[in-house]
Specification:
heterodimer; A: alpha/beta; seven-stranded mixed β-sheet; 29 helices; B: alpha+beta; SH3 type barrels; 6 strands; globular; binds guanosine-5'-diphosphate
């Protein structure tokens, strides 16, 4: 047997020199695709973005039984009739790329619902493999699945795995080999009711598929009736009249739109299969985690826990950041002494070296210490599924301030980076709702701005002011939203899954943090060093003085801040982190705590920084997504909000102090 | 059988979906997330404001949060 397989594999291998085999992981959100992807690819991963969206996918090439195989982890989807951007991305990828095998990852504890997607996938006519994941959890819940029966009903090889614990991976690999290289099986397709099959038969010659591909024509035939707008640009309709008649006939005979008929037939089939293959050993009782989860979800106790977790989150970032920062202090100041002698030899040279040094030491000594715990803790919140609870709890409040429930997730993302958060608002159908959400997301302090807040408050004001600043930001956003939304119609409601709460894997959290840090060094770090270098050179030519006096009327007279802060604010447009260490650079001090600012000044400055201008990348996204007029509105709005807020703090705080 | 709206069902009560009278977009989303007519749902949390949280007993107890406005357009009936 093994010899035979080897023979087959090497035969294919010579062929695969021209085209390497491609596997796509497809499954519902939280089914464990990424975990499986990690288990399969443990070596190297490249993350990339799909054109036009930031819905991320990961891909890698692994060597399988002597051949290179390309594996891609596609965004989670509930259905092949997409209603969210991630779902469009996955569908289009499946339709436009040549894929040799789909691995349908299923959370075994959600087998019944997941089979609906499985049935839809079989319609593509691509060889498939079902990976029944989370077998460990299914066992705990007393759910057993008859894999042979499932395999027989769908003609899709099926394996039980537990991606997190790396169980069943070997068997999965063996089945992959068979499906890819030895004897690929295509799935059995569902037959719809007689009348629907008749109609499908009648229209199957009424269109051509625009580009020749690997998808079964039947898939397109179904979609022509079910969801015509979806595949419009992939087909050439040759007899639109016939198709129109067919759609009318379905509606008049069944009294419901075609998509409902297909959905309900698939639904019946999946229920039928699920009944045949699933064995419930005992009715599952509420576990400790389930009970805890209810407390997280119900109003009042839910809010209490949310406040508690976020307070802990901020406290941990605060203390860890301060501590990590102090570790770098000594070595970094030693480093600066090394090039001190240069000052007497060539002043310009010293300015250049010092500019680079300031950039590096700012990025490593000031930004990174806060960024690191921030990423780590955020990964934990994401991996456990707690973020979904926050989104659920916040929906009530969001509704009250006139925001669409669907935007909650984007707002939460906004604490990471504004750019993907604005992209994520694409799930909101109405353009006005989307614009409103995006304008406000821009005011949510992203990780760069959080770092600025944490670093400066730690050094100059103490944690109490961090909380004041945060509360103020949230209230300001809510009030702005309320005011803006009175001009807009009421948004419609949300429909969202609350995935089970799970204990996270420490390894995956570390990995996630690591990749984000790597990205920081690739994307942000060069900006920070170059920005700092630019400032230093401008300084040498005394240009910063000109810049500062240009902005002095506004910064000193209105905001009540020293004029030296003009340059950091200008550079903050490039990246908000620059504003923090340019502040120390501007005052010529090498420790944040020596910056000569009073508490009211620090607070007004920080609030101003958070709101005043979208950074370069955010501006670019706004321009692309909404056009320059809306970008301009956002800038003006931000400028107004930041000035009013800074003035408010200047006046109230100086009367108190 | 008494038909009522999902938004009116008390905590812990078990009901059957009779009809989904929302717009097409919301309906497709509900179907994709596995909520179909005739499914048996248990209301986990139905506070006086905010979304209704249900557990779909017909679909592996998957929990779905449904905005109040949409829950007001889902007709259900009691099951015992
Ligand atoms: N108990 C258990 N948890 C798992 C398993 N596979 C993945 N998970 C967890 O399920 C959650 C969702 O997994 P993820 O890979 O992010 O899902 P994706 O959204 O499909 O990519 C994470 O918290 C994983 O750690 C498994 O086999 N058993």
């Amino acid at each position: 047997m093994p010899e035979l397989q080897l023979g087959e594999v090497s035969l294919k291998k010579s062929k695969s020199k021209t085209s390497i085999k491609s596997i796509a992981l497809v499954g519902q959100p939280n089914s464990g695709k990424s975990t499986l992807f990690n288990a399969l690819s443990d070596v190297k991963v490249s993350t990339a973005n799909f054109a036009g969206t930031t819905v991320e996918y990961k891909e890698t090439v692994i060597n399988l039984f002597g051949s290179d195989v390309h594996i891609i982890d596609l965004p989670g989807i509930y259905s092949l009739n997409p209603s969210e951007p991630a779902e469009f991305v996955t569908l289009n990828y499946l339709l436009d790329n040549s894929i040799d095998l789909i691995i349908n990852v299923i959370d075994s504890t959600f087998i019944t619902r997941s089979l609906e997607l499985t049935i839809e996938l079989t319609e593509l006519g691509i060889p498939m493999l079902i990976a029944l994941n989370m077998t460990d959890e299914a066992q705990k819940k007393g759910i057993d699945i008859n894999t042979e029966e499932l395999e027989r009903l769908l003609n899709v090889p099926t394996v039980k795995i537990s991606a997190l614990y790396r169980k069943g991976i070997t068997e999965l690999l063996e089945k992959i080999e068979t499906q890819l290289f030895i004897s690929p099986k295509t799935p059995t397709q569902q037959k719809f009711t007689f009348h629907i099959e008749q109609v499908l038969n009648r229209i199957k010659e009424s269109f051509e598929i625009a580009s020749q591909n690997h998808i079964d024509k039947r898939f397109y035939t179904i979609k022509v009736l079910e969801n015509p707008s979806l595949i419009k640009n992939k087909l050439e309709i040759t007899n639109s009249n016939k198709i129109k008649l067919a759609i009318d006939e379905i509606i008049s005979q069944h009294q419901i739109p075609a998509y409902e008929i297909f959905e309900s037939e698939r639904h019946h089939r999946s229920m039928e299969i699920s009944h045949k293959v699933t064995i419930y050993a005992h009715s599952s009782k509420l576990t400790f985690i389930d009970k805890l989860d209810l407390l997280f979800l119900k109003p009042f106790s839910g809010y209490f826990f949310a406040i508690f977790f976020f307070a802990t989150y901020f406290f941990l970032i605060f203390s860890a950041g301060g501590w990590i920062g102090s570790l770098f202090e000594q070595p970094l100041s030693e480093l600066s002494k090394l090039f001190e002698p240069l000052k007497d030899k060539t002043l310009l040279g010293w300015f250049i070296v010092d500019g680079i040094y300031q950039g590096i030491s700012g990025a490593i000594g000031i930004v990174l210490p806060y960024f690191l715990p921030l990423l780590f803790l955020t990964s934990i919140l994401e991996e456990t599924g707690y973020m979904a609870r926050i989104a659920y709890l916040m929906d009530t409040i969001f509704h009250r301030i006139g925001l669409h429930g669907k935007s909650v997730a984007s707002f939460v993302m906004g604490f990471g980076c504004t750019v993907p958060a604005v992209y994520a608002t694409r799930i909101i159908e109405s353009k006005r709702d989307r614009l409103l959400a995006s304008v406000l997301i821009n005011f949510i302090p992203c990780s760069a701005r959080l770092t600025v807040i944490f670093a400066l408050t730690t050094a100059l004001t103490g944690p109490l002011w961090t909380i004041v600043i945060f509360l103020y930001i949230l209230i300001a956003i809510a009030v702005t939203s309320k005011i803006l939304s009175t001009f807009l119609p009421k948004p419609i409601g949300l429909i969202m899954e609350i995935p089970p709460l799970r204990l996270p894997s420490f390894k995956i959290i570390l990995k996630k943090t690591y990749y984000k840090i790597l990205e920081f060094f690739k994307v942000a770090f060069p900006f920070l060093v170059l920005g700092s270098l630019a400032l230093s050179i401008l300084d040498y030519f005394n240009f910063t003085k000109t810049m500062n006096s240009l902005f002095e009327p506004f910064i000193s007279n209105i905001l009540g801040l020293p004029k030296e802060l003009g340059t950091p604010l200008v550079f903050g447009f490039l990246r908000k982190e620059l504003a923090v260490f340019m502040t120390s650079q501007a005052f010529g001090v090498n420790n944040l705590s020596n910056i000569p600012l009073t508490i009211p000044q620090v607070v007004s400055f920080l609030i101003f920084i958070v709101f005043y201008l979208p950074c370069v990348s955010t501006s670019a996204v706004f321009w692309k997504e909404f056009g320059w007029k809306h970008l301009l509105t956002t800038v003006v709005l931000g400028f107004l909000l930041s000035t009013i807020s800074a003035l408010f703090f200047r006046i109230t705080l100086t009367t108190i102090f | 059988m008494l038909v009522m709206l999902l938004s009116e069902v008390n905590n812990e009560k078990v009901v059957k979906v009779v009809a989904i009278d929302t717009g097409n977009i919301a309906k497709q989303r509900l179907l994709a997330l596995g909520i179909h007519p005739n499914d048996i749902l248990q209301v986990v949390s139905n506070p006086s404001f905010g979304p209704v949280l249900i557990k779909n007993l017909s679909k592996d107890n998957a929990r779905i949060a449904i905005g109040r406005g949409i829950a007001q357009k889902i007709k259900v009936e009691n099951v015992n």
